[in-house]
Design brief:
556 residues, 3 domains, five-stranded parallel sheet
Length: 556
């Protein structure tokens, strides 16, 4: 008995030791894994509220390849930003709410405006009660609009009509830009001899309240082309800032990115790289030198060729960029650099950086006037966005809030939405190359056929609603079958908004030294995107119409 106990005791002790050692090893291994994860984890870009917004679109580029998705084009005004800057004081306007309207009514009561119903037979458009009536009517009618300011109503075409203009913002747009509408209202007399709106005209119907055109007597010429003076948007100021004096130039600190392999790549690639450079400039507290000349990828051109010489301001809001970031146009910068460096004993201090592997953190304390990043290596080593990879991603925050779509394009978006009285639904129909590629998207073509679309939309959208179709389908009549159930609207229904008689045409032509600007594929997708976002009900291709995955088989 004792011998048996003596022989089994060491075995029990060894088993206990073995188990304890194993548990300790597992614990150490777990701590090691946790430590590695903590060190290498890179949080999402804090400018965005959620990763699916823009980060998901672009972070597939970490392996230095770029998978282009041009079906939706998001910019800063399309997402809720965590750290977006405050509205500049000059642009801050308190919205007109029911509370504001009641205060206006109290002021009117103090004026002791006396009249009987007979006096109101002919509407006095300058009567403050007329404006209050319009304000309350608009507030109840247009739920998706923030009204910012009104002008005093003016006479319409009849004695019971007034034309009223106001500035507003759509609630779904995250920018602080203002847009303009003017409508004609017909008034009747309600209880207690008060005004009420009998009929409200449509978008831009109140032509007497339209801003003055200030047209000169002669046409304006630019080169060989004679242009009718445009009725421009006076709120757009995308002039190029100048350098000023030599002293100011030498006091400044600049980050200059030479042209790299990103040129003529897709616009999503361009934005990912551009915001990397701008983010580094902000991190280094330097002025970013930017080339306003953009090469539009063949993807967006009917000719299927890359097109150089496009102006950044055709697509993006340069005025807003100047408000929130320190930027300088490249040719203006090079002119000053050459002028004040030539023949001078004291040259402008320059640090050349020839590889993206020199990190922003290493340049943080550099005191050179100019940091000149050069991208001469073969692709993909010469992509700008490589600067923001690896450890730099923890320090460089891409400033999405700085990049908005062009106000000129957004005016077209507003015009289209306004013509539908802001009361419309929308469907995003992706076809094109994806519909033709049965290997990656086997069901997309059939699921977006006219019959399939009509069947699906009947389940989601009420009949005879305004239905805007954002699509890359090239054939205008493709969606005719939907017209039996809906009031169908396509981008090409609004071609007059960029025709040679439009405000957009005149302004972009002047911006382009008198040469007409084509309303290209990128502009079309940008406008489609923004109208889509303003719809009351939004139907998406890869979430509602088909079971195919957005990026191909097995990627959902």
């Amino acid at each position: 008995m004792k011998e048996s106990e003596l022989s089994t005791e060491p075995i029990g002790q060894n088993l206990i030791k073995l188990i304890s050692n194993l548990c300790f090893s597992v614990f150490v291994f777990s701590v090691l894994i946790f430590t590695v994860i903590a060190i290498t984890y890179q949080p999402p870009d804090p400018w965005l509220e959620s990763a699916p917004a823009l980060t998901k679109l672009f972070t597939q580029t970490e392996n230095a390849t770029f998978k282009n998705d041009d079906s939706i084009l998001k910019t800063g005004e399309d997402v809720v930003l965590v750290a977006s800057p405050e509205v500049p004081p000059a642009l801050a306007v308190n919205p007109i709410t029911e509370t504001v309207i009641k205060k206006s009514e109290e002021k009117i009561l103090n004026l002791n405006l006396k009249s009987d119903c007979e006096d109101l037979k002919f509407v006095n458009c300058s009567d403050p009660r007329v404006l209050v009536t319009v304000e309350r009517f608009n507030l109840k009618t247009f739920k998706f609009i923030v009204f910012l300011e009104y002008q005093t109503p003016v006479n319409g075409s009849k004695l019971d009509e007034c034309d009223v203009a106001w500035r507003f913002r759509n609630k779904k747009e995250k920018s602080w830009r203002k847009y303009r509408d003017f409508r004609r209202f017909k008034f009747g007399i309600g209880e207690n001899c008060t005004y009420n709106v009998v009929h409200a005209g449509g978008w831009h119907s109140g032509i007497n309240a339209r801003r003055p055109r200030n047209r000169p007597n002669t046409t304006r010429s630019s080169g060989n082309l004679r242009l009718a003076p445009p009725v421009g948007d006076e709120e757009i100021n995308d002039t190029i800032p100048t350098l000023g004096s030599e002293m100011n130039f030498r006091k400044g600190k600049y980050l200059y990115y030479a042209r790299g392999g990103d040129y003529c790549k897709g616009m999503n690639h361009y934005l990912w790289s551009f915001l990397c450079g701008l983010g580094e400039a902000m991190y280094l507290n330097r002025t970013f030198v930017m080339d306003l000349s953009v090469c539009l990828s063949a993807t967006y051109n009917p000719s299927n060729r890359d097109e150089e010489g496009k102006d950044f301001r055709f697509y993006f809001d340069f005025e807003h960029l100047k408000e929130v970031a320190s930027v300088l146009e490249e040719s203006e910068f090079l002119r000053g650099w050459k002028k004040w460096n030539r023949g001078r004993k004291r040259k402008v201090p320059v640090k050349k950086v020839t590889t993206y592997k020199v990190t922003p953190m290493q340049l943080k304390k550099d005191k050179s006037t100019i940091i000149w990043r050069q991208f001469d290596a073969p692709e993909p080593e010469n992509y700008w966005y490589r600067v923001c990879e690896g450890q730099a991603a923890k320090y460089i925050q891409r400033p999405w809030h700085a990049l908005w779509k062009s106000k000129r394009l957004m005016n077209i978006v507003t015009e289209i939405s306004g013509q539908m009285d802001w009361d419309f639904d929308a469907v995003h129909v992706v076809r094109g190359e994806k519909a033709q590629n049965k290997e990656l998207w086997p069901h997309l073509d059939a699921d977006t056929s006219p019959d399939a679309l009509l069947t699906k939309l009947k389940e989601m959208i009420q009949p005879w609603r305004n239905l805007y179709i954002a699509t890359n389908e090239p054939f205008y009549n493709y969606f005719d079958k939907l017209r039996s159930q809906y009031k169908v609207h396509l981008l090409d229904d609004y071609m007059e908004l960029w025709s040679n008689k439009s405000e957009w045409y005149n302004e972009t032509t002047l911006l382009n030294d008198g040469k007409p600007v084509e309303f290209d594929g990128y502009m079309r997708v940008a406008v489609d995107t923004e109208v889509l976002y303003r719809a009351k009900t939004r139907v998406e291709t890869f979430y509602n119409l088909t079971k195919d995955c957005k990026d191909g088989i097995n990627t959902c």
